[in-house]
Specification:
About 30% of the residues lie in helices and about 25% in strands. The chain has seven helices and 17 strands. It has helices spanning about 5-15, 25-45, 65-80, 220-230, 245-255, 280-290, 320-335; strands at about 55-60, 65, 85-90, 100, 110-115, 130-135, 160-165, 170-175, 180-185, 190-195, 205, 240, 260-265, 275, 295, 315, 315-320. It has an eight-stranded mixed sheet with strand order 4-3-5-6-7-8-9-10, with helices on both faces. α2 packs antiparallel against α3. It has about 325 residues and is α+β, with helices and mostly antiparallel strands. Bound molecules: 2,5-anhydro-1,6-di-O-phosphono-D-glucitol and manganese (II) ion (3 copies). The site of 2,5-anhydro-1,6-di-O-phosphono-D-glucitol has 12 residues, from β5. It comes from Comamonas suwonensis. It catalyses: beta-D-fructose 1,6-bisphosphate + H2O = beta-D-fructose 6-phosphate + phosphate.
Length: about 325
C-alpha cells in the first residue's frame, strides 16, 4: 500500500490505472472531500463557533434540525453546485431535489447525502459524520427529474462517508474495495491510511438500540436473545454490545474490526419499513460493507437490490460481518 499518499494522488492513480474514475467523478469526489474538511473544522469549533444546538426548524422527516445539520447541508451544496460535474443533489435536510442552477454548467452525476449523521451526538462531543452516494443521471431525456434518483444501490458509482471523531477520516469506494484517508490538519489534505479494508466474517460484537426491544419483530428478538445468552446459550460465546447512535461511527467500527449493526422495522410505526433512509444512509453504507467482504440486507433481501420509489424512502437495516448477517436474514425468512 502506498501509505500516506494524498486522496488526490490516489484518485489520479485510480483514474490512470483502472479507468474506474472518469475525470468528472474525480472532481466530484475531491469537492465532496473539501466540503467534509470544512464541516470538520466547523464541528471542531463547537461552542466557540456558534454551531451547537437546534436551529428551531423541522426537516421533511419531522426531525428537529440542529444548526450543524443545516450548516453541513449548505456547505455541501455550495461546494458542489458550481463545478459542472453535477446535475442535481438530494439530501436528508431538503424535501425535494436541488437542481444545479442555470448559471452553472450541468454535469452527468447525481449526488445524495446525509450532511450530518448522528445529530443527537453533536452537542455531547461524540463522533458524527457525513454520508454520500453518487449515481449517474439516466440518459435519454433533457433536464433532471426526481425519478432520476430512483435507482437501486447497485447503480452507485461512488459512495462513502467522513467521520468527525478523534480523527477526521474519509472512507470511500468506487467499486474497487474500500480505502480510508485521514485528514492531516497541518497539510490540510486527506492521506491514505488503509486500503482493501476487510471485515472479519465472524464477530462477537453487535450494535442495536436495545431500548426498542419491546417493539421488535420476532426474528430480531430471537437473534438478540441468543447473543445475550452468551457462552451458556446456543451461540456458545459471549458477545459485547456497542452503540454510538451515529450510523457513521457504528459502521466505521465494523469496517475496522467487524461486528453487526441493526436498525430494524418496529411495531411503533408499522407502515414505515424502518428508521434509516435508503438512498443516503443504507445504500452507501451497504456498498462499503459489501466491498469490504461483509453483507447488508433489510432482514430479507439485499439492500442494494431495492428499487426506491421515494427520495426519503426508509428501510430496515442489518449489516456487517457476513456470517452474522446471514444468520439474522435466515431467522427472518424462517419466520415468514
Ligand atoms: P440522522 O442524525 O442523520 O437523522 O441519523 C440518525 C440515525 C443514525 O445515525 C443512528 O443509527 C440512529 O439514527 C440512532 O437513532 P436512535 O438513537 O433514535 O435509535
Ligand atoms: Mn436527521
Ligand atoms: Mn443519518
Ligand atoms: Mn442527518
Amino acid at each position: 500500500m502506498k501509505k500516506n499518499i494524498s486522496l488526490t494522488r490516489y484518485l489520479v492513480e485510480q483514474q490512470r490505472v483502472d479507468g474506474l474514475i472518469p475525470g468528472q467523478l474525480r472532481l466530484l469526489l475531491e469537492v465532496v472531500a473539501r466540503a467534509c474538511k470544512r464541516i470538520s473544522f466547523a464541528v471542531n469549533k463547537g461552542e466557540l463557533g456558534d454551531v451547537m444546538g437546534t436551529a428551531g426548524s423541522e426537516n421533511v422527516q419531522g426531525e428537529v434540525q440542529k444548526k450543524l445539520d443545516i450548516i453541513a447541508n449548505e456547505t455541501l451544496i455550495e461546494a458542489n453546485e458550481w463545478g459542472g460535474h453535477l446535475a442535481a443533489m438530494a439530501s436528508e435536510e431538503m424535501e425535494g431535489i436541488y437542481v444545479v442552477p442555470n448559471r452553472y454548467p450541468q454535469g452527468e452525476y447525481l449526488l445524495m447525502f446525509d450532511p450530518l449523521d448522528g445529530s443527537s451526538n453533536i452537542d455531547i462531543n461524540m463522533s458524527i459524520g457525513t454520508i454520500f452516494s453518487v449515481l449517474k443521471k439516466p440518459e435519454g431525456h433533457p433536464g433532471v427529474h426526481e425519478s432520476d434518483f430512483f435507482q437501486p444501490g447497485t447503480q452507485q458509482v461512488a459512495a462513502g462517508y467522513c467521520i468527525y471523531g478523534p480523527q477526521t477520516t474519509l472512507v470511500l469506494t468506487v467499486g474497487d474495495g474500500v480505502a480510508m484517508f485521514t485528514l492531516d490538519r497541518e497539510q490540510g489534505s486527506f492521506l491514505l491510511v488503509e486500503e482493501n479494508v476487510t471485515i472479519p466474517e465472524d464477530t462477537k460484537e453487535f450494535a442495536i438500540n436495545m431500548s426498542n426491544m419491546r417493539h421488535w419483530d420476532e426474528p430480531v428478538k430471537r437473534y438478540v436473545d441468543e447473543v445475550l445468552a452468551g457462552k451458556e446459550g446456543p451461540r456458545q460465546k459471549d458477545f459485547n454490545m456497542r452503540w454510538v447512535a451515529a450510523m457513521v461511527a457504528d459502521v466505521h467500527r465494523i469496517l475496522c474490526r467487524g461486528g453487526v449493526f441493526m436498525y430494524p422495522w418496529d411495531k411503533r410505526e408499522p407502515l414505515k419499513p424502518g428508521k434509516l433512509r435508503l438512498m443516503y444512509e443504507a445504500n452507501p453504507m451497504s456498498w462499503l460493507i459489501e466491498q469490504a467482504g461483509g453483507m447488508a440486507t433489510n432482514g430479507r433481501e439485499r439492500i442494494l437490490d431495492i428499487k426506491p420509489t421515494q427520495l426519503h424512502e426508509r428501510v430496515s437495516v442489518v449489516l456487517g460481518s457476513k456470517n452474522e448477517v446471514e444468520r439474522i436474514t435466515r431467522y427472518h425468512l424462517e419466520a415468514d
